[in-house]
Amino acid sequence: MNTMRSNRYKRIYRFAASLAALVMQSIPFAVLWMRYYNDPNRITQTFALRGNWLVIGIYVVLLFTFGNVYGGFKIGYQKAGSLILSQGITLFVTDLLMYIIIDLLARRIIVAWPMALLFVLQLLATALLAHLLTHIYDANFPPRKLLMVYGEYEEPALRLRQKMNGMAEKYEVTCLLHQSEPYETLCTRIEESQGVVLIDVDTPLRNQIMKYCYVRSIRVYVAPNLTDILLKSAEALHFFDTPLLLSRNTGLSIEQKLAKRVMDLVISGLGILVTSPIMLAVAAAIKLYDGGPVFFRQARATCGGKVFMITKFRSMVTDAEKAGYAIPATERDPRITPVGRVIRAARIDELPQLFDIFRGDMSVVGPRPERVEHVDKYTEEIPEFAYRLKVKGGLTGYAQIYGKYNTTAYDKLKLDLMYIENYSLLLDIKLILMTVKIMFMKESTEGFTAEASEKMHDAK
Predict the structure, then answer these.
(1) How far is CA 392 from the centre of its chain?
(2) At residue 1, does pLDDT exceed 50?
(3) Cα–Cα nearest to 30, from 61, 62, 57, 63
(4) What are φ and ψ of residue 252, in 5° steps?
(5) Which residues, including other chains, have CB under 8 Å from residue 221's CB and lie 6 or more apart?
(6) What angle do CA 365, 370, 371 make, to 5 degrees?
(7) Buried/exposed 92-106: b ≥16 CB within 10 Å, e otherwise
(8) pLDDT of residue 285
């Protein structure tokens, strides 16, 4: 009962804190609009009271929308630093769009420094508020103490426990139990905890535990298997009084493929036009550094197992794989050139893939196209790895957003299947917007350790 009451207080606090952040960020814009921009010397036609509320309302809607996309209102779910980054990107995108809207209202380009100053002041206030709200949350809502029950192998459970305990302000996995423990023992330990985590537990026992927890309103965190992910997108059929779930297993429909291709053409075409000066500068820098080729091409597997040559700016020395086999980049790889380090850190080395997208070899969003030899190796170990080839490979995607560069192949497969089975054009747009945030997060670009890199080619 105390746990349920605590959950209610958490939700109330998060709602109040998010509302406070939204109001605090909106008020400065409202003042700037009414005191500065809503002036006959700046826009062709000034607004009265209702018009002012409309403009401010548009700002609040944009702020709320992008705040949800970037996680800017996930107070209690993120550390203060991550929360400030999320809110900073939210404010930047919102203020930029509102500046464009104001220019359209003025029918000319007006001075931008007031909006720039607004952004700086908002960011400073947001940083202070984020630290304050996070501190209050951590002080009043200690981490949830969890029991973890695992299946045959302990290693995946230990990895998951490390990840969850890494969010020390939210989770604390206090105990690991193997599924072979007596059921009565498991139930007793579950009652003593504030929730249970299930990973790779045999289906009959998993069902028992979930029913046991459902009756008692105990939280259950489940690491899904592939079948769980496939069923998550299943369509409910009600032709008769026996419920059925239909899993079509066909990937994207014709309509979805057409809409996705149109979006790819528009985004890649605009991207090529906008980034062409950057690409020319990078090409010149690579050529001037060592005189080697500007581009790096490599065979990758995409939809249906089709192989194409992916194009990147070369970031390593010309003979980076002179040993004759694939060697994944490590965290401090000596093969990376000084120019390469800069363009890899800024993700600029990926820009030539806009041409691959425009040609139709790739999509803007989709599972990352793996090297052919890696697909063969992963498929030997995980036959289901081929499931991710139901759609085109992408420049960004679900696994790139929610995973890391060194996320295990099995976890990447799960993430990519979540994308495929829950596909929508809105999901693509959301992932494209979220990519902006990921570019600022160091952990998403972590390379393999030297040991992990060696394992990638031990079987060669």
Answers:
(1) 18
(2) no
(3) 57
(4) -85, 145
(5) 146, 195, 196, 197, 198
(6) 145
(7) bbbbeebbeebeebe
(8) 93
Amino acid letter at 136?
I
Tokens of 367: 């599972």
Q: CA torsion 141→161→427→236, rounded to 10°?
A: -100
Question: pLDDT digit string (tens) for 316-359?
Answer: 888 766 655 556 666 667 788 888 888 888 889 999 999 999 99
- Residue 105 structure tokens: 């209202």
Q: Mind spelling out the 3-state secondary structure of the chain? A: CHHHHHHHHHHHHHHHHHHHHHHHHHHHHHHHHHHHHCCCCCCCCCCCHHHHHHHHHHHHHHHHHHHHHHCCCCECCECHHHHHHHHHHHHHHHHHHHHHHHHHHHCCCCCCHHHHHHHHHHHHHHHHHHHHHHHHHHHHCCCEEEEEEECCCCHHHHHHHHHHHCCCCCEEEEEEEECCCCHHHHHHHHHHCCCEEEECCCHHHHHHHHHHHHHCCCCEEEECCHHHHHHHCCEEECCCCCCEEECCCCCCCHHHHHHHHHHHHHHHHHHHHHHHHHHHHHHHHHHHHHCCCCEEEEEEECHHHCEEEEEEECCECCCCCCCCCCCCCECCCCCECHHHHHHHHCCHHHCCHHHHHHHCCCEEECCCCCEHHHHHHHHHHCHHHHHHHHCCCEEECHHHHHCCCCCCHHHHHHHHHHHHHCCCHHHHHHHHHHHHHHCCCHHHHCCECHHHHHHHCCCC
Backbone angles phi, psi at 34, to 5 degrees: -75, -30
Torsion-angle region of 328 (φ positive above 0: left; ψ -120 to 50: alpha; else: beta): beta
Token duo for residue 54: 């409309």
- Centre a 10 Å sphere on the Cβ of residue 207 and count the other Cβ atoms it contains: 11
User: What is the model's pTM?
Assistant: 0.80
Tokens of 244: 């059925």
